[in-house]
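Good morning,

Attaching, inline, the backbone tokens for the sequence recovery test we're adding to the shared suite. The designed sequence is right after.
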């Protein structure tokens, strides 16, 4: 479900448990594999200013001491290993607790002044919670003969929080992956978890290189930088004000009240003989007071209008409409059971809520002329991971252009070769550029266009590449065109917008952006 990291079982081919009374010797093959994988992650994550955490889980405190002594003697880990002992119940020993808790708070910080630790050595029964994202490798050590009961969830639980919360787990790109390495005794624990949960963890060869794809600014291409203005929003959600006069303007739904007996009949039939054996009549369940029903309607209307803090003012207006205009006659809410019965009908609920939402949706918003607030420089974007397609374009300031699909990749290649393109970039949320708009339902949404282009005439172009049109395309087009008009006025630099549909783009072989736009000048 991509809520947590994806655990993988690390297989160390040819590894054997060596007979020895020293844990670092007995589990040497898996300890070494874990350290090698940690080093690979450290190298790949360096451009992102993130440090990976290596977690050793040991059966007993004695073995934890032995492994700590060994790992802490390795040059690139010396002074960076935290040892945590637990008592017989699995709780952190009081002497280690303050240090362990402080470590947990700052472990993800890449500044060694704030937290020098890059590895943890503890026991498998560690119960103390950890709010840590950067555990990439867990080395779980458990011998064939260990009798100590280990919960399989405890083995994985130290490292499941995502390092990159916005990214899906991707095995091939090593993004949001938790590698679990250990001897056959540890693998048995993972197998137990697979059986319990009905899942299957993928296996990986610990000798296979890590392929972590990153995107960062190329210092040799700073001449390809682009500045995107940040404008204040045109559309705001305002404080909602409405009075009784507005309710009087609403049309009546004129729902008829039925003179029916508010009861239901229950019949039990013998399934073998097909004979009726029991009959009962009960009163239909009807709300006992109108307040809760009107409150429910009011709450649902305000939720769909995305208005908060207006319940007290809005409730009496909904009540007024129900009494005076919902039905084909003025009603008494609490004395007429037919009214309460009708109010509980899903059909009536839908009609009433829709009437209010359609009538007052536009009153929730106000439009103002924008101002230039700041600007985004692509050269200021921090490095980030990318799990999809990449293209090493020459005319983009980034070392790779991140693409979501094959059409974007093809368009990227076109821009990199177009004779009138000075610079371009794929716009992704991490860049921070978006435009607010109202969708086909009138709700506020954020729109992230696909590309920003700087032409050889120093004009800027926003492009949306569209494979399939959705219901909101026209609303996005209208809003981004208005944004470009505002940006041109406020920056004194020309900004324009163009939507390029995949079917149209693939019909021709274009040599320039100008040629592309001229061909489809009547579209988008």
């Amino acid at each position: 479900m991509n809520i947590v990291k994806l655990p993988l079982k690390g297989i160390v081919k040819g590894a054997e448990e060596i007979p020895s009374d020293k844990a670092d010797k007995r589990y040497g093959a898996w300890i070494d594999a874990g350290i090698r994988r940690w080093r690979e992650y450290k190298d790949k994550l360096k451009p992102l200013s993130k440090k990976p955490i290596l977690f050793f889980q040991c059966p007993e405190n004695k073995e934890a001491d032995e492994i700590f002594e060994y790992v802490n003697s390795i040059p690139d880990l010396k002074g960076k290993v935290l040892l945590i002992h637990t008592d017989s119940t699995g709780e952190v020993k009081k002497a280690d607790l303050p240090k362990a808790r402080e470590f947990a708070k700052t472990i993800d910080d890449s500044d060694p002044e704030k937290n020098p630790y890059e590895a943890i050595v503890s026991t498998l029964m560690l119960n103390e919670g950890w709010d840590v994202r950067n555990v990439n490798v867990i080395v779980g050590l458990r011998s064939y003969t260990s009798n100590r009961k280990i919960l399989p969830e405890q083995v994985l639980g130290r490292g499941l929080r995502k390092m990159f919360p916005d990214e899906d787990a991707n095995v091939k790109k090593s993004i949001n992956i938790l590698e679990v390495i250990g001897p056959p005794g540890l693998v048995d624990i993972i197998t137990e978890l697979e059986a319990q949960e009905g899942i299957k963890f993928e296996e990986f060869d610990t000798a296979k290189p890590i392929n972590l794809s990153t995107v960062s600014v190329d210092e040799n291409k700073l001449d390809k930088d682009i500045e995107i203005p940040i404008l204040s929003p045109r559309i705001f959600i305002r404080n909602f004000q409405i009075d009784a006069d507005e309710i009087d303007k609403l049309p009546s739904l004129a729902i008829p009240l039925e003179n029916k007996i508010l009861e239901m009949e229950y019949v039990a039939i013998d399934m073998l003989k097909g004979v009726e054996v029991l009959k009962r009549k009960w009163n239909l369940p009807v709300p006992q007071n109108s307040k809760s029903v009107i409150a429910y309607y009011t709450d649902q209307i305000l939720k769909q209008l995305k208005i908060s803090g207006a319940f007290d003012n809005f409730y009496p207006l909904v009540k007024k409409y129900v009494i005076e205009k919902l039905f084909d006659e003025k009603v008494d809410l609490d004395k007429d059971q037919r009214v309460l019965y009708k109010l509980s009908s899903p059909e009536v609920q839908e009609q009433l809520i829709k009437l209010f939402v359609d009538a007052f949706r536009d009153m929730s918003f106000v439009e103002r002329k924008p101002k230039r607030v700041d600007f985004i420089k692509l050269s200021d974007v921090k490095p980030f991971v990318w799990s999809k397609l990449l293209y090493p374009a020459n005319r983009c300031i980034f070392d790779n252009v991140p693409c979501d699909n094959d059409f974007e990749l093809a368009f990227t290649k076109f821009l990199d070769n177009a004779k009138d393109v000075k610079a371009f970039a794929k716009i992704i949320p991490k860049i921070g550029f978006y435009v607010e708009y109202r969708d086909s339902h009138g709700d506020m949404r954020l729109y992230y266009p696909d590309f920003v282009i700087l032409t050889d005439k120093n004009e800027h172009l926003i492009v949306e590449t569209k494979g399939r049109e959705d219901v909101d395309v026209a609303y996005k087009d209208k809003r981004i065109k208005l944004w470009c008009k505002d940006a041109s006025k406020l920056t004194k630099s020309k900004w324009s917008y163009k939507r390029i549909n995949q079917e149209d783009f693939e019909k021709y072989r274009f040599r320039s952006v100008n040629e592309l736009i001229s061909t489809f000048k009547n579209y988008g």
